[in-house]
Amino acid sequence: MMKLRFAAASPFVRKVVVVSLETGLSERIERVSTSVSPVRPNEEMARENPLIKVPALTTDDGTILYDSPVICEYLDTLHDGPKLFPPSGAARWTALRQQALADGLLEAAILVRYENLRPQEMRWQDWVESQMRRVRGALAALEIETAAGALGGPLTIGQITIGCALGYLDFRFANEEWRMRHRQLGVWFEDFNRRKSMQLSAPRES
């Protein structure tokens, strides 16, 4: 059985969980609850992933894979259904670009999350605003993608990553109220979030 280093609040772990559910592989993966922090060492995790980040996946043959794009693409090779990573052509580059955009949104949002966990007198507000500009720029780009119909069609890793990114904003940045500025994206997410895989993987505090 494969082993997934798991944290219930991580949107990158959620990506992997959604892929495992969508591909029917969930029962082949044991979830191992793992706590990581930017300031506290986890030597056990470091032996598996020198970046000390979740997710990390131990495959059936003992190979350890990280991070989420690599793990998701690996899982996509293990099933016979429609592929979440289109094999070639424009569809593939669209899916990978969308994944990169949503991953970048998440990376910026998580940096803000970490900064806001620091004592008030130690927070760097210019840094927070710089990262939030990236988040808002990504949202604006996703609104354009939605209006152009680029989030439609067969399920891809791009759509999954976008869904997980928007779910993370709702979880950690509810005051951002991103739907007010990006109404078409909000409608898309409301529909996408009804998928069983999204409902079963909703983020929660560990």
- Gross geometry: globular
Estimated structural class: alpha+beta
The end-to-end span amounts to: 23 Å
**Total helical elements:** 8
Largest sheet: 4 strands, mixed
Our Rg estimate from Cα atoms comes to 17 Å
The proportion of residues forming helix, as a percent range, comes to 40-55%
Overall pLDDT score: 95
Strands side by side in the biggest sheet = 2-1-3-4
Low-confidence stretches: none
Strand proportion: 5-15%
Per DSSP E runs of 2 or more residues, the count of β-strands stands at 4
Number of domains: 2
- Return the CATH architecture of the largest domain: Up-down Bundle
CATH class of the largest domain: Mainly Alpha
Say what the CATH topology of the largest domain is: Glutathione S-transferase Yfyf (Class Pi), Chain A, domain 2
Order of helices and strands: EHEHEEHHHHHH
Structure description:
The chain is α+β, with helices and mostly antiparallel strands. It has two domains: 2-75, Glutaredoxin, CATH 3.40.30.10; 89-196, Glutathione S-transferase Yfyf (Class Pi), Chain A, domain 2 (Up-down Bundle), CATH 1.20.1050.10. It is built from eight helices and four strands, in the order E-H-E-H-E-E-H-H-H-H-H-H. It is globular. The protein starts with a strand and ends in a 6-residue tail after the last helix. The mean pLDDT is 95.
